[in-house]
Structure formats: C-alpha cells, structure tokens
Amino acid sequence: APSDPDLVERARAAKAKLGDKVFVLGHHYQRDEVIEFADVTGDSFKLARDAAARPDAEYIVFCGVHFMAESADILTGDDQQVILPDLAAGCSMADMATAEQVAECWDVLTEAGIAEQVVPVSYMNSSADIKAFTGKHGGTICTSSNAKRALDWAFEQGAKVLFLPDQHLGRNTAVRDMGMSLDDCVVYNPHKPNGGLTAEQLRDAKMILWRGHCSVHGRFSLDSVDDVRARIPGVNVLVHPECKHEVVAAADHVGSTEHIIRTLEDAPAGSKWAIGTELNLVRRLANRFADQDKEIVFLDRTVCFCSTMNRIDLPHLVWALESLAAGKVVNRIEVDKETESFAKLALERMLALP
Ligand code: 13P
Ligand code: SF4
User: Fold this and answer.
1) How large is the angle between the packed helices 66-75 and 337-351, nearest 10 degrees?
2) Quick one: which residues bind [4Fe-4S] cluster (predicted)?
3) 219 contacts 300 by C-beta, under 8 angstroms
4) Which residues have any ligand 2 atom within 6 Å of their CB?
5) What ligand 1 atom has the least distance to the C-alpha of 27?
6) Residue nearest to atom 1 of ligand 2 (CA)
7) Under the phi-then-psi rule, with left for phi > 0, alpha for psi from -120 to 50, and beta for the rest, what region is 31?
8) 245 near 197, Cβ under 8 Å?
9) Which of 1, 141, 160, 255 is least surrounded by Cβ atoms within 10 Å, i.e. has the fewest?
10) Residues 6+ apart with CB under 8 A from 233
C-alpha cells in the first residue's frame, strides 16, 4: 500500500529540519516506506562501516534491528547518539546466544582441554555481550559478506573455531567455501549439558557451531528449490547463506544481501531468478528490475517477512525524527563502556580483515 502522504510529509519536514545532524541508515530488509528516507542502504557490513564514516552526524537513526544499532554505537564516537525507532526490533537469532550460555560453553571447552586452540568467530547478528566475549578471547566478528575471510584469519590464529550464533552461516562457509567436510563440524546445543557433546567430539571438531538459526531463512527448504525449478525452467536459484546447508547446496548462487543485489544488477535481460532471502528486499528487487526483463520471484511463497525488521515502519520513523527535531532523544541504544571496549576490538579485527 502507498505510504500515508501526511506521514511522508512529516518525515520529510523533520529530516529537513535536522539537516546534517541526522544520518539515517537502512538495512536492505526494511520496508519501502522506510528505505525511502534512508541516506544510505546496505547489508550489515556496509552499514557498520557507513555509521563509523559519519563522525559529523550527531544522531544516527538506525533502521534495522537491535544488534545493528548496538554495533553502530560501538563504532561511532561518544558524542554521537544511535537511535532505534522501535526498541522491540530485535533479532531472534541474536537472542539464541546469551552471555551466560556462551560463558558456560567456554567452561565446557576449557574442561575438554581445547579452549586454548579455539578462536571465537561471531556473526554480526549477535548482542554486544557476545561481541565483547569474542573480542576478549582473541576472536573476530564476521558478516555474511566476509565470513570466509574471517574464518581464514581465525584458522591462522588457532586450530579450531567456535562459530556463534548462526550454525548455518558457519557450516555453509566451512563446507562450501573452505573445503571442510560436514564431519569437521559439530553443533553445540546450549540447552543440553556440555552442549550435548562429548569431550572427544569437541577434540575432533574443527568447527564448533552454536545451535542458532534465522527464523526467516531457516524456513526455506529443499522442496522450495525443487518446486521453483519445476515451475520456472531455467531459473537461477540465489540464496542467503543463513539458509540451511541442503538449500545452499542445491542453489546456484549464494551470498549476502549486497551480493544478491549486485548479482541481479549484472544479470542479463531475459534471465530468471528465485531469491531466498527476506521478502521486503525480494519484492523491491522484483519491481526494480521488472522493466529490464529480469524475472525475479520469491523462493518460497509460504515464507514471510522478518517480523522484527518490519517493526520499523513509517510511524515509528516519523516519531523518532520529530522527537529529535524537537530536541528530545528517544530510543537511544547505548552499550556500556566495558562491553564496548572488548566488542570494538572484535569489530575492528573484522574491519581490518584483508
Ligand atoms: P546481511 O545484510 O549482512 O546479508 O544480513 C542479513 C541479515 O539477516 C541481517 O539481519
Ligand atoms: Fe534476525 Fe533473521 Fe530477521 Fe535477520 S532476517 S534480523 S537474522 S531474524
């Protein structure tokens, strides 16, 4: 549905009043009505860099989810304030690894006598606490666009990796991009004693994968791939690496949101694509390329939006911008100093990856 013209006008007016004081970042999974007001759009890697690249902006309004706003706060200056227009915009995957659970896991690895060989690699989609744990234990953050480089780096530092919290990105990168076998990976289940693993299994594993997943991407199935291939002959299947391993193995191409966009930009006219990632982005791409004769469909018609990404809508954005324009800071995301210093270490290791 088209946006309420009154709200559009109010967002424009508040943004104009704030001028250079405000910088609005929009993740690719955001609604069209929000993307319209983003000064920059990107995947989580690009947005982390872009937030850090605007030291002049007093307010960073982050249209995305909580962990992204935390990362922006960690990477921006102390006098910059990061605003998340709806505090309920979390990420179910990030919530699957808590600081207590990860500390307990480290104790298990220590008990098994392997902690010294383990380098933590945490996906951007994790809380600031998990990023701090990662920094403290010599590890790095990664995103879906640099996971291979992060793992290459980690295996130069140690013989094993603890990959948090997305088991699928960890497994897909290890097996698809680095030539490891499925047997090199074990899954640590935080809800079971010792992660549900024996000390021997831990000693044999190269990749210890945290048992987390994305509730949106985890729903694409091998059936979705088979169905779309039957329905659209010649279709190219392009999926995000948060999808299950069997889906990624059956796909033609795999990549982050930025990679998906670039691939479609470069695709020849007449080509057909089935995309396995969040629906807001897929719809936007389908519309954008419709007049270039590129057929773009959603990989599985039963998978829905990321409900927490969708919480940031135009009314929330207008409220945040108007509050700031009136001199009132709302929904500020602020990571405490101790957590920030270790989390920053891990994020900076990522930003320094070759
Ligand atoms: P990217 O934009 O880094 O591909 O991340 C996908 C995602 O799920 C963010 O929540
Ligand atoms: Fe989290 Fe998945 Fe939503 Fe991304 S798409 S914010 S990983 S639940």
Assistant:
1) 90
2) 91, 214, 306
3) yes
4) 29, 65, 91-93, 125, 214-216, 278, 306, 308-309
5) 2
6) 91
7) beta
8) no
9) 1
10) none
For tokens 């790095």, what's the residue? 140
For residue 190, what pLDDT band results from cuts at 50, 70 and 90?
very high
Taken in order of first residue, the domains within the chain and their CATH numbers are 5-91+309-336 (3.40.50.10800), 94-213 (3.40.50.10800), 217-298 (3.40.50.10800)
Q: Give the three-class secondary structure for 109.
A: helix
Residues with Cβ within 8 Å of 203's Cβ and at least 6 positions away in sequence, in order, are 112, 113, 114
One-letter identity of residue 96: M
DSSP 198-259: -HHHHHH-SEEEESB--TTGGG--HHHHHHHHHHSTTPEEEE-TTS-HHHHHHSSEE--HHH
Task: Classify residue 192 by burial, with Cβ atoms within 10 Å: 0-12, 13-18, 19+.
Answer: exposed
ipTM for this prediction: 0.96
8 A C-beta contact, residue 173 and residue 148: yes
pLDDT at 295: 95
Is the pTM value of this prediction over 0.90?
Answer: yes
Q: Which tens digit of pLDDT belongs to each residue from 91-145?
A: 999 999 999 999 999 999 999 999 999 999 999 999 999 999 999 999 999 999 9
